[in-house]
Amino acid sequence: MKPLVVIPARGGSKGIPRKNIKPFLGRPLIHYSIDVARRLVADNRIILSTDDEEIADVARQTGLPVPYMRPSSLATDTASSRDVVLNAMGWADSRCIAYDCVLLLQPTSPLREVGDVERCLAHYTPEVDMVVSVVPAASNPYYNCFETDLSGFLRISKGDGLYTRRQDCPPAWEINGAVYVINPVSIREMPLGAFPRRVPVEMPHERSVDLDTPCDWVVAETIARLRDESR
User: Fold this and answer.
1) Nearest-CA neighbor of 50 among 97, 2, 18, 93?
2) Can you give the CATH number for the domain in which 188 is found?
3) How far is CA 69 from the centre of its chain?
4) pLDDT digits (tens, 9 = 90+) for 188-208
5) 154 and 94 in one domain?
6) How far apart are CA 19 and CA 177, in angstroms?
7) Beta carbons of 1 and 101 less than 8 angstroms apart
8) Which domain holds residue 214?
9) In terms of domains, do 81 and 130 share one?
């Protein structure tokens, strides 16, 4: 397998300003995803996708070359992950870098381990659109996830609402944002959300924190410290 690794790191983050280069346990956040990527592929197969020269320079501190810069048109709040990946693929194609899948590693998952990525890669085949890391959902649509009907009353999101124990319900999953293994043909044809053939690979809760808010940051650093102390 020949993955093309894309690490998206735009400069305009709002929930946690400058989060991609903010120190996480003393190291810039972006370094954790770069470390994982470099344990899987050679540097020329890693594309750091950023519009920000400071982020690029911080990434280069690891020794990773950063020859590609994301166009400013893809650095807005409305730019889609698909467009970002397609642009990186086009850059790789123009340099004759061969690949058979795209491995998207978001910097906001610093607790992700190499083994998590390897398990996702092992489940990928050209017959699927995407392999994606998941975690058991906090709310199950058969049990404790509700919607309002036309009268404004709550109704169960899925099923008849007769389950009395959560463990009896069909499992529900959340995409945790840590690992995406994407079929290049599929992403050229349709958005990620339209993929009909998505294969889940479960990750544990303790490695599934996605950094979106300052509270997430505190939780993730606490987990990382406890993990390091136990080793």
Assistant:
1) 18
2) 3.90.550.10
3) 20
4) 999 999 999 999 999 999 999
5) no
6) 16
7) yes
8) 3-135+173-230
9) yes
Cβ atoms of 178 and 203 within 8 Å: the answer is: yes
pLDDT digits 0-9 by tens, 32-70: 999 999 999 999 999 999 999 999 999 999 999 999 999
pTM summary value: 0.94
